[in-house]
Amino acid sequence: MTTMAIDNKDKKVLNVPHLRFPEFSGEWENTELQYIAPNICSGKDKPTSNGTVALYGSTGIIGMTRLASYNEEIVLVARVGANAGQLQITTIPCGVTDNTLIINAKEWNRYIYYYLQHYNLNRLVFGSGQPLITGSMLKKLKIIYGEESERNKIVNLLCLLDERIATQNKIIDKLQSLIKGLNDSLYQQYGNEIMTSFSKLGQSYSGLSGKLADDFGIGKPYITYLNVYSNNVVNENDYQYVRISDGEKQNVVKYGDVLFTLSSETPEEVGVGSVYLGKDDVYLNSFCFGIHIENKGLAYSPYLSYYVSSTPFRKFIYPFAQGSTRFNLCKADFEKADIKLPSLDNQKHIYAILNHITEKIETEKMILERYTIQKQYLLRQMFI
Q1: In whole angstroms, what is the distance from residue 70 CA to residue 53 CA?
Q2: Of 85, 266, 289, 371, whose CB has the highest number of CB atoms within 10 Å?
C-alpha cells in the first residue's frame, strides 16, 4: 500500500481515480457491462433433498442441488427482496436460484466484483413493494477501467484485504464459540449452588407507557427492543430518544437491572435477556420489562448478563412462551419459577473469566472495523 501515488483529484485529467499506483498514468476508458459480460441472467436451479452440489441464493449457500450449472468463477447479485444488490463471488461448482443474477465476465470477474461494490448497487433498486434489480439494468451499467495490469493490481490489493477481513471474522467466531461453550460448561459445574427466583432477587417493572409516535425522536434516552434482543449487555451507544415531561411517571432503568423481551414471532426468541451496566438513568421500550436486582447477596448483576444468554437458561425460559401466531412470555409464572445460580463468589469468578474473553472479542472487532473502513476507503478512491 505504500507504493500508491498521491491523490489525483486536483489534476485536470478527470477520468482517473483519486488514488493510483505510481507506475500507471493516462485516462481510464468506459463501456457498458453488457460488452464485458453479455450473458447476465437469473439462476434456474432448485433445491433437492438428495443434492450434493452447493446451491446459492441471494445471501449465500441456501441448500444443495443435484447438478452444477456453473463450474467456474462467477459473480452473483441478489435480484429481489430486502437483499437486492448484495454481491457474492464463488469459484466452486454450484447451482444458482432464480432470485439471483449471474455475471460471468471471465478474467474481468474480480474487477467487476469490486467495481460493483464501489458503485453500490442499492442505487439501482426500485419497487415500493418488493425491491428489485434486473439483468437489463446491470447490462446498461457503465464500467470505468484502466489497463489490464492496473486492474489486476487493484484486484490483488483488495483480495488481500478481503482475506484479512475473512481471517478476522474467523478469529471473532472462534472466540464467540469459546465463550458460549465455556459459559455453559461453567454453569453446569457450578450452577446448582443457589436456588432462588427472579421475584426473590428483585422487583419487576414495565417499559414506557402512554407514548404516541410524536413523542419519539427527541428527549431522553431509552433502550430499544432490538438493543435488548441483540446484546447480553445493553449497548450504551445505541439508544433512541423519547420525550419525558417533568414529573411524568415512567419506570427508570438502573445499573444492574436485567431486561427481557416480552414477545416474538417464535417461542425460541421470547424472553431474550440483557443486563444494563451503565451509570446513567435511562428508560425502557414498551415491549420489554425489567427487574431491579435488589438482593445483592444472591446475584451479581454482571454475571447475570452471561447467565441469561446461556443454553440452560434458554431451555428454562422456553416453556413460558405462550401463543400460536405470536408468542408472549407468561411473566408472572416466569418470575416465580425457581432458578439455580452459582454462589456469589463463583458468579464473580465466572464473570471475570468470561469477561476477559469478551474484552478480547471487542478488541478483535475493533481491528475488523479498521480493516473494513480501510477497504471502503480504497473502494471509493481507487475506482471512478
Answers
A1: 10
A2: 289
Q: Residue 91 burial (CB < 10 Å; 0-12/13-18/19+)?
A: exposed
pLDDT in tens, 26-81: 999 999 999 999 989 999 999 999 999 999 999 999 999 999 999 999 999 999 98
Q: CB under 8 Å to 45, separation ≥6 — which residues?
A: 55, 65, 67, 69, 95, 96, 97
- What residue has cell string 500508491? 4
Domains 29-145 and 194-341 share a fold: yes
The CATH-assigned architecture of domain 194-341 is Alpha-Beta Complex (3.90)
pLDDT 10s digits, 323-378:
988 899 999 999 999 999 999 999 999 999 999 999 999 999 999 999 999 999 99
Instruction: Decide yes or no: CATH 3.90.220.20 for domain 29-145.
Output: yes
Full-model pTM? 0.84
All structural domains of the chain with their residue ranges: 29-145, 194-341
